[in-house]
Amino acid sequence: MSPARRGAPENSGEADVEKEGRGTWRHAAFHVATTIATPAAYAPLPFAVASLGWPLGVCSLVVGTLVTWCSSLAVASLWQWNGEKHTSYRLLARVSLSMTRTLCFVEGPWGYWYVSFFQQVASVGNNIAIQIAAGSSLKAVYKHYHTADSGAMTLQHFILLFGAFELFLSQLPDIHSLRWVNAMCTASTIGFAGTSIGVTIYDGYRIGRKEVAYSLPGNTATNIFRAFNALGTIAFSFGDAMLPEIQSTVREPVRANMYKGVSAAYTIIVMSYWTLAFSGYWAFGSQVQPYILSSLTAPRWVIVMANLFAVIQIVGCFQIYCRPTFAHFEEWLNVKKVICKSWMWRLMYTSTYIALVTFISAAMPFFGDFVSICGAVGFTPLDFVLPALAFLKARKKPDNLGLQCALKLLCSSAAVLFSIVGALACIGAIRSIVLDVRTYRFFHDM
């Protein structure tokens, strides 16, 4: 056994990967765009830009786009090196984080568990945030048809209904069995982006422009923490914790096809993300809501469509992000060699997971806060820090000493800088959650 493998699970329960991928670069672009560009990623971007103001908001979004694009290319370049294929982030980290202590305090097998932790934070945090978003969208559709106050259903009712449906889908064995669900989700992503951007621009022209303010409300301390929170939101919007898994499905030449696929996906993401973020802030100014659909006013039937598109897309997104957690349960059962009906154990651990996520979502339905803390603690390490460290470890160094030093300085600086950004974003998100808990009671009907 190689030193890099010592201490990490030999059979870590990763999904079986085809020996030879069959997907084209177009398929890779499709998967990458679908994984990143979800309604929960689109919806908070105008609020994030509003929390930073025009100059810093535009710069942060542009930098986030460029850095994650480069990071994705770096991860794609490391899919096969050192004689091994690294078909998941955990397997890549097991080897690539066995580096010098001056860059990282994670050595050997600890890299596997380091990334496993952040993947779980990203996955669980993402599902809490998108379940709140799904409940909010279902409630918005309900309110369109039910105008009476008596006997009205609350946000918590819709969160529970969504959780029950996800529990049903969780009994399906793998992502492949969700292929028809994900096909509908992909179409819904396109529908959500188109309707949201269209209605935002329409509302922007209807609103008197003199009534829209772009100044940052509140005192200096409040604005600083809101800015920290916004950085976590932007990190969440570019979060992708499945890049090596996607690359495993691509045919030869794998790297070249993945480079083209990632670049094509980011072309789509730039067009849609930037358009919605900037048009949302332009239309509503500093009063834009953390969930952009809550700011839209007309036409009502189009807003209902956008909310339905959001719910359908979130159904599949939730399933994708709960699978890493289910894999850990299955690994534990395999290690313990538990003898019992597999469907019974699956029902037990999926029920436990769905119940926990649903409870947190219903108790603290603060969509923007969970988006920010998930981006800060989960996606920032995976998408901003890990790729820089892994690239520095794995890629062949230039022969020129000056270029070597420049590469080390660039990668090290990126890792340190975005670690600091992630810490600041986490502080801002925690502060927002504390303030919201003080302002609203638990299980508040937002």
Automatic annotation (TrEMBL):
Cell location: Membrane
Keywords, alphabetical: Amino-acid transport, Membrane, Transmembrane, Transmembrane helix, Transport
Residues covered by region (Disordered): 1-20
Chain segments annotated as transmembrane: 54-79, 151-169, 181-202, 264-284, 304-322, 343-364, 370-392, 413-434
GO cellular component terms listed in the entry, alphabetical order: membrane
Domain Amino acid transporter transmembrane: 22-424
Stretches assigned to coiled coil: none
Pfam family, one: Aa_trans
Main subcellular location of this protein, as a coarse class: membrane
GO biological process, one term: amino acid transport
Protein name: Amino acid transporter transmembrane domain-containing protein
